[in-house]
Amino acid sequence: MASALVNVPAKARRGDIIEIKTLMSHVMETGYRHMASGELVPRDIITSFTCRFNGSEIFRADLFPAIAANPFITFFTTATASGKFEFEWIGDQGFSETASASITVE
Amino acid sequence: MQQPPNSSRRQFLGLAGGAAVLGAVPVVTVRPAEATPAMLASAIQSVTGGAAVRTGKVKLDIPPLVENGNTVPMTVSVNHPMAPEDHVRSIHIFNEKNPQANIANFHLGPHNGRAQVSTRIRLADSQKIVAIARLSDGSFWSASVDVVVTLAACTEDVI
């Protein structure tokens, strides 16, 4: 159940600033809502998102319950070399998902 | 019957009163249902460590009128070069009235080329959003935006 959606340009020129868009399917339950019975719904969110390029970290985000369901994050990076972007989402209750995308830099 | 001297009775009452006050303190500090400006200030303090925060450089793009607080698009950008010797190290987003003052922390570096991040957030009430950027020289810059929310998020009950 690959629930990640990642958008990275397939090709770029060296030195270009490229935009990376990511979407991960997740409820992001805040832990502040009650059920009809009065019980608190336990928190279940993604707490950390990391992007690595050829093994080194280029972007990291700490997320909190105030991030909407299905966290959508976009950021920029400079295209320096061909290689592989690896994305990792880590969250409550053992949540862990990864995705990857390759880029060719001319 | 042994009657303790009056002075020790007063001491006892004083101690008991003190204990009652101490016991009451945790009740006072129980977290309120929504973040308060004090919680916002302490969340900012935990990032800046008390350093001065100047207004400017940061641009926070949020619609000023939000119909649905469950997904509010937000873009934060910092007008600053991203050179290895002088860049934006991190961007922190805070709110005033959600149950928790933090929204997100973004960690950047010179390889990002442009200090701009977009995401979608939740807003529980009409309130002020604050973005703070930490530069590699240790200075802090901020921007804030007031948002009006007509349908609140986060705390509504599950049916």
General description of the model:
The complex is a heterodimer of chains A (106) and B (159). Chain A has 106 residues and is mostly beta strands. Chain A has strands at 4-7, 11-12, 17-24, 46-53, 56-63, 72-78, 83-91, 96-105. Chain A has one domain (4-105): Immunoglobulins (Immunoglobulin-like). A 5-stranded mixed sheet of chain A has the order 2-8-7-4-5, with no helix packed on it. A 3-stranded antiparallel sheet of chain A has the order 1-3-6, with no helix packed on it. Chain B has helices at residues 6-29, 37-48, and strands at residues 53-55, 58-61, 65-68, 72-78, 88-95, 102-107, 116-121, 127-135, 140-151. In chain B, strands 1, 3, 5, 6, 8 and 9 form a 6-stranded mixed sheet that branches. A 3-stranded antiparallel sheet of chain B has the order 2-4-7, with no helix packed on it. The N and C termini of chain B lie far apart (64 Å). Mean pLDDT of chain B is 83; it is low at 23-30. Chain A binds chain B through residues 17, 30, 32-36, 41, 53, 58-69, 71-78, 80, and chain B through 70-72, 95, 98-100, 102-109, 111-114, 116-123, 153-159.
User: What is the H/E order of chain B?
Assistant: HHEEEEEEEEE
**CATH class identity of chain A:** Mainly Beta
Structural domain tally of chain A: 1
Percent helix of chain A, as a range, is under 10%
| Helix vs. strand class of chain A | mainly beta
CATH architecture of chain A: Sandwich
CATH superfamily of chain A: Immunoglobulins
The CATH first-level class of the largest domain in chain B comes to: Mainly Beta
The low-confidence runs of chain A, each spanning 5 or more residues with pLDDT under 50, are none
**Radius of gyration of chain B, taken over Cα atoms and rounded to an integer in Å:** 23 Å
Give the uncertain stretches of chain B in residue-range form: 23-30
Determine Rg of chain A (CA atoms, Å): 16 Å
Class from secondary-structure proportions of chain B:
alpha+beta
Beta-strand proportion of chain A: over 45%
